[in-house]
Amino acid sequence: MIFIIIPIAFVTIGGSLMFAFAAIGGWRDLARRYPAEEKPEGEYYHFRSGSFSGIGYKNVLTVGVCDDGLYLAVFFLFRVAHPPLFLPWSEVTGGHVVRLFSWSACNVTIGPSERIRVTLPIEAMQFIHDKMGVEVQALDTPE
After folding, report:
1. Under a CB-based contact definition with an 8 Å cutoff, are residues 119 and 51 in contact?
2. Distance CA 104, CA 123 (A)
3. CA 97 to chain centre
4. Strand order of the sheet with strand 85-88?
5. What is the average per-residue pLDDT within 125-133?
6. How far, rounded to the nearest angstrom, does the alpha carbon of residue 111 sit from its chain's CA centroid?
7. Where are the transmembrane segments (predicted)?
């Protein structure tokens, strides 16, 4: 009996947490407005970490930088309540580097009304910077 209850509890609790993370972090709102119809051509970074309004996604993100926008997807095992996103460059604002010791990331804001703060891998920064046409500001944290 216990062998049936534990997997059911695990799936139920895990699924509930994924729905909560999508709602709190803003992924759900972005998915309604910017669903990815297909995976566009571009440069992709797999198994990256990032965050949406403080909700962390550790090593489960695929980040795609494309000519027309930014593609984001969660690894399929954790995709409950997290459909892939395609964010047009016109909806991405800001763009600065955050450094903490040896860790670096790129902060951007998504959407004119949602204003969701997204932290992405530093590898995508130069391409994001080029597409957005904004000056990169480095925010160095003292060590």
Report:
1. yes
2. 9
3. 16
4. 85-88, 69-74, 55-65, 43-52, 116-121, 103-110, 92-100, 137-140
5. 65
6. 13
7. 6-27
Per-residue model confidence (pLDDT) at position 100: 72
Q: pTM value? A: 0.81
Q: What is the pLDDT of residue 143?
A: 39
Question: Both tokens of residue 72?
Answer: 């984001």
pLDDT at 126: 67
Domain assignments of the chain as residue spans, ordered by start: 2-140
* DSSP designation for 143: -
- Contacts of residue 20, defined as CB under 8 A and 6 or more positions apart, other chains included, come to none
- CA atoms of 20 and 66, how far apart (whole Å): 29
Phi–psi pair at 84, nearest 5 degrees: -60, 150
Amino acid at 38: E
pLDDT at 115 over 90: no
What are the tokens at 125? 């920064």
**DSSP secondary structure of 9-76:** HHHHHHHHHHHHHHHHHSHHHHHHHSB-SS--SSEEEEEEEEEETTEEEEEEEEEEE-SSEEEEEE-G
Give tens-digit pLDDT for 57-100.
Answer: 999 999 988 888 889 999 998 888 999 999 998 888 877 777 77
